[in-house]
Protein backbone atom coordinates (compact mmCIF):
# COMPACT_ATOMS: atom_id res chain seq x y z
CA UNK A 1 0.00 0.00 0.00
CA UNK A 2 1.46 3.44 -0.87
CA UNK A 3 2.95 5.40 1.98
CA UNK A 4 0.60 8.26 2.96
CA UNK A 5 2.14 11.63 2.27
CA UNK A 6 2.49 14.73 4.36
CA UNK A 7 3.03 17.36 1.71
CA UNK A 8 4.13 20.99 1.77
CA UNK A 9 3.95 22.91 -1.52
CA UNK A 10 6.23 25.95 -1.58
CA UNK A 11 5.48 28.66 -4.15
CA UNK A 12 8.12 31.41 -4.59
CA UNK A 13 6.61 34.58 -6.01
CA UNK A 14 7.50 38.10 -7.03
CA UNK A 15 5.04 40.46 -8.71
CA UNK A 16 2.59 37.69 -9.55
CA UNK A 17 -0.62 39.66 -8.84
CA UNK A 18 -2.02 38.89 -12.28
CA UNK A 19 -1.95 35.14 -11.80
CA UNK A 20 -1.50 34.26 -8.14
CA UNK A 21 -5.20 33.77 -7.40
CA UNK A 22 -5.72 31.27 -10.22
CA UNK A 23 -2.49 29.50 -9.26
CA UNK A 24 -3.60 29.03 -5.67
CA UNK A 25 -7.19 28.15 -6.52
CA UNK A 26 -5.78 25.30 -8.59
CA UNK A 27 -4.17 23.96 -5.39
CA UNK A 28 -7.42 23.93 -3.41
CA UNK A 29 -7.84 20.12 -3.80
CA UNK A 30 -4.40 19.67 -2.23
CA UNK A 31 -5.34 21.82 0.75
CA UNK A 32 -8.73 20.09 1.03
CA UNK A 33 -6.85 16.80 1.34
CA UNK A 34 -5.02 18.15 4.42
CA UNK A 35 -1.76 19.33 2.88
CA UNK A 36 -0.27 22.81 3.12
CA UNK A 37 0.58 25.51 0.61
CA UNK A 38 3.17 28.14 1.54
CA UNK A 39 3.68 31.25 -0.58
CA UNK A 40 7.05 32.97 -0.24
CA UNK A 41 6.99 36.54 -1.48
CA UNK A 42 10.16 38.51 -2.23
CA UNK A 43 8.73 41.94 -1.42
CA UNK A 44 6.26 42.33 -4.28
CA UNK A 45 4.86 45.84 -4.66
CA UNK A 46 1.77 44.83 -6.66
CA UNK A 47 -0.35 43.26 -3.92
CA UNK A 48 0.68 39.66 -4.58
CA UNK A 49 0.90 38.80 -0.88
CA UNK A 50 -2.51 40.31 -0.09
CA UNK A 51 -4.17 38.36 -2.90
CA UNK A 52 -2.44 35.13 -1.87
CA UNK A 53 -3.19 35.22 1.85
CA UNK A 54 -6.82 33.94 1.78
CA UNK A 55 -5.92 31.13 -0.62
CA UNK A 56 -2.96 29.49 1.10
CA UNK A 57 -1.91 28.37 4.55
CA UNK A 58 0.86 30.88 5.01
CA UNK A 59 2.48 33.85 3.28
CA UNK A 60 6.13 34.37 4.12
CA UNK A 61 8.32 37.36 3.25
CA UNK A 62 11.94 36.72 2.30
CA UNK A 63 14.84 38.17 0.38
CA UNK A 64 14.83 38.06 -3.42
CA UNK A 65 15.91 35.05 -5.39
CA UNK A 66 14.12 31.73 -5.83
CA UNK A 67 16.77 29.79 -3.89
CA UNK A 68 16.45 32.12 -0.90
CA UNK A 69 12.65 32.05 -1.11
CA UNK A 70 12.37 28.28 -1.40
CA UNK A 71 14.73 27.72 1.53
CA UNK A 72 12.66 30.15 3.62
CA UNK A 73 9.50 28.23 2.81
CA UNK A 74 11.10 24.85 3.48
CA UNK A 75 12.30 26.02 6.88
CA UNK A 76 8.71 26.65 7.98
CA UNK A 77 7.09 23.70 6.19
CA UNK A 78 5.54 20.90 8.22
CA UNK A 79 5.40 18.20 5.56
CA UNK A 80 7.68 15.20 5.18
CA UNK A 81 7.64 15.86 1.45
CA UNK A 82 8.53 19.25 -0.03
CA UNK A 83 7.36 20.27 -3.50
CA UNK A 84 8.64 23.48 -5.11
CA UNK A 85 6.15 24.94 -7.56
CA UNK A 86 6.44 27.99 -9.80
CA UNK A 87 3.41 30.27 -9.80
CA UNK A 88 2.91 29.73 -13.54
CA UNK A 89 2.93 25.93 -13.30
CA UNK A 90 -0.12 23.72 -12.64
CA UNK A 91 0.00 20.24 -11.13
CA UNK A 92 -1.84 17.36 -12.84
CA UNK A 93 -5.12 16.19 -11.33
CA UNK A 94 -3.55 12.93 -10.13
CA UNK A 95 -0.56 14.62 -8.47
CA UNK A 96 -1.32 13.35 -4.97
CA UNK A 97 -1.72 9.76 -6.15
CA UNK A 98 1.54 10.01 -8.06
CA UNK A 99 3.32 11.39 -5.00
CA UNK A 100 2.00 8.51 -2.90
CA UNK A 101 3.71 6.21 -5.36
CA UNK A 102 6.90 8.19 -4.94
CA UNK A 103 6.75 7.84 -1.15
CA UNK A 104 6.54 4.07 -1.56
CA UNK A 105 9.66 4.08 -3.75
CA UNK A 106 13.26 4.13 -2.61
CA UNK A 107 13.93 7.46 -4.29
CA UNK A 108 14.85 10.58 -2.33
CA UNK A 109 13.50 13.05 -4.86
CA UNK A 110 11.79 13.46 -8.17
CA UNK A 111 10.08 15.67 -10.72
CA UNK A 112 7.16 15.75 -13.14
CA UNK A 113 7.23 15.68 -16.88
CA UNK A 114 6.33 19.10 -18.27
CA UNK A 115 4.04 20.40 -20.98
CA UNK A 116 3.95 24.00 -22.19
CA UNK A 117 0.57 25.73 -22.37
CA UNK A 118 0.99 27.17 -25.86
CA UNK A 119 -0.83 25.43 -28.71
CA UNK A 120 1.98 25.57 -31.24
CA UNK A 121 3.40 22.20 -32.25
CA UNK A 122 6.83 23.58 -31.48
CA UNK A 123 5.92 23.78 -27.78
CA UNK A 124 5.14 20.05 -27.74
CA UNK A 125 8.51 19.37 -29.31
CA UNK A 126 10.28 21.59 -26.77
CA UNK A 127 8.55 19.81 -23.87
CA UNK A 128 9.49 16.41 -25.32
CA UNK A 129 13.15 17.39 -25.42
CA UNK A 130 13.00 18.87 -21.90
CA UNK A 131 11.57 15.63 -20.53
CA UNK A 132 14.04 13.38 -22.31
CA UNK A 133 16.93 15.61 -21.29
CA UNK A 134 15.89 15.11 -17.68
CA UNK A 135 15.63 11.36 -18.11
CA UNK A 136 19.07 11.14 -19.63
CA UNK A 137 20.88 13.55 -17.31
CA UNK A 138 18.92 13.21 -14.06
CA UNK A 139 18.65 17.01 -13.94
CA UNK A 140 15.43 18.77 -12.98
CA UNK A 141 14.59 22.39 -13.70
CA UNK A 142 12.13 24.53 -11.77
CA UNK A 143 9.44 24.20 -14.46
CA UNK A 144 9.21 20.49 -13.63
CA UNK A 145 8.04 20.92 -10.01
CA UNK A 146 10.90 19.30 -8.12
CA UNK A 147 9.88 17.36 -5.00
CA UNK A 148 12.15 15.95 -2.30
CA UNK A 149 11.91 14.17 1.03
CA UNK A 150 12.48 16.65 3.80
CA UNK A 151 15.26 14.62 5.45
CA UNK A 152 17.25 14.49 2.20
CA UNK A 153 16.72 18.20 1.55
CA UNK A 154 17.90 19.13 5.03
CA UNK A 155 20.85 16.73 4.94
CA UNK A 156 22.10 18.46 1.78
CA UNK A 157 21.57 21.94 3.18
CA UNK A 158 18.78 22.88 0.78
CA UNK A 159 19.28 25.15 -2.22
CA UNK A 160 22.53 26.99 -2.59
CA UNK A 161 21.87 30.77 -2.61
CA UNK A 162 22.55 31.16 -6.32
CA UNK A 163 20.90 33.79 -8.56
CA UNK A 164 20.46 31.21 -11.34
CA UNK A 165 20.81 27.43 -11.82
CA UNK A 166 19.86 26.68 -8.20
CA UNK A 167 17.60 23.86 -9.41
CA UNK A 168 20.32 22.32 -11.57
CA UNK A 169 22.85 22.56 -8.74
CA UNK A 170 20.52 20.86 -6.25
CA UNK A 171 19.67 18.16 -8.80
CA UNK A 172 23.35 17.34 -9.13
CA UNK A 173 23.70 16.85 -5.38
CA UNK A 174 20.45 14.92 -5.06
CA UNK A 175 21.63 12.69 -7.89
CA UNK A 176 24.37 11.42 -5.58
CA UNK A 177 21.65 10.18 -3.21
CA UNK A 178 19.32 8.54 -5.74
CA UNK A 179 18.02 8.70 -9.27
CA UNK A 180 15.01 11.02 -9.60
CA UNK A 181 11.51 9.58 -9.53
CA UNK A 182 9.79 10.61 -12.77
CA UNK A 183 6.06 11.35 -12.81
CA UNK A 184 4.83 11.08 -16.39
CA UNK A 185 1.59 12.96 -15.73
CA UNK A 186 2.81 16.39 -16.81
CA UNK A 187 2.66 19.69 -15.05
CA UNK A 188 1.47 22.48 -17.33
CA UNK A 189 3.81 25.46 -17.45
CA UNK A 190 2.72 28.77 -18.93
CA UNK A 191 4.49 29.42 -22.22
CA UNK A 192 4.52 33.22 -21.70
CA UNK A 193 8.31 33.34 -21.28
CA UNK A 194 8.76 31.48 -24.55
CA UNK A 195 6.25 33.73 -26.28
CA UNK A 196 7.83 36.92 -24.93
CA UNK A 197 11.37 36.12 -26.08
CA UNK A 198 10.30 33.91 -28.96
CA UNK A 199 10.66 30.10 -28.76
CA UNK A 200 13.88 29.75 -30.73
CA UNK A 201 15.57 32.62 -28.96
CA UNK A 202 14.55 31.13 -25.60
CA UNK A 203 15.90 27.72 -26.56
CA UNK A 204 19.25 29.13 -27.60
CA UNK A 205 19.43 31.31 -24.49
CA UNK A 206 18.74 28.40 -22.11
CA UNK A 207 21.17 26.05 -23.81
CA UNK A 208 23.84 28.74 -23.98
CA UNK A 209 23.48 29.49 -20.26
CA UNK A 210 23.57 25.79 -19.32
CA UNK A 211 26.63 25.22 -21.49
CA UNK A 212 28.42 28.10 -19.79
CA UNK A 213 27.36 26.76 -16.39
CA UNK A 214 28.72 23.28 -17.13
CA UNK A 215 31.99 24.89 -18.22
CA UNK A 216 32.30 26.43 -14.78
CA UNK A 217 31.10 30.00 -15.28
CA UNK A 218 29.66 31.57 -12.14
CA UNK A 219 25.86 31.70 -11.66
CA UNK A 220 26.23 35.44 -10.96
CA UNK A 221 27.61 36.16 -14.43
CA UNK A 222 25.00 33.88 -16.00
CA UNK A 223 22.21 35.70 -14.17
CA UNK A 224 23.56 39.02 -15.49
CA UNK A 225 23.61 37.63 -19.03
CA UNK A 226 20.06 36.30 -18.64
CA UNK A 227 18.70 39.64 -17.40
CA UNK A 228 20.44 41.47 -20.23
CA UNK A 229 18.94 39.14 -22.82
CA UNK A 230 15.43 39.46 -21.36
CA UNK A 231 15.64 43.26 -21.21
CA UNK A 232 16.65 43.39 -24.86
CA UNK A 233 13.78 41.15 -25.96
Automatic annotation (TrEMBL):
Pfam families: Glycos_transf_2. It is found in: Cell membrane. Keywords: Cell membrane, Glycosyltransferase, Membrane, Transferase. Its main location: membrane. It comes from the Bacteria. Residues 8-136 form the Glycosyltransferase 2-like domain. CDD domains: GT_2_like_a (cd02522). This is TIGR04283 family arsenosugar biosynthesis glycosyltransferase.
Amino acid sequence: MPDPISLSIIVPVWREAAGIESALKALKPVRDAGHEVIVVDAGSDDGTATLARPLCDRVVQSGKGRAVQMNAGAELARGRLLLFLHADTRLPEDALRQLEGFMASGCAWGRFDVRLSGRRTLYRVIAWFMNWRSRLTGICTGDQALFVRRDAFEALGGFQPLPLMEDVELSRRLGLVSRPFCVRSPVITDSRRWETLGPWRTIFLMWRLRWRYWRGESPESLAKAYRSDVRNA
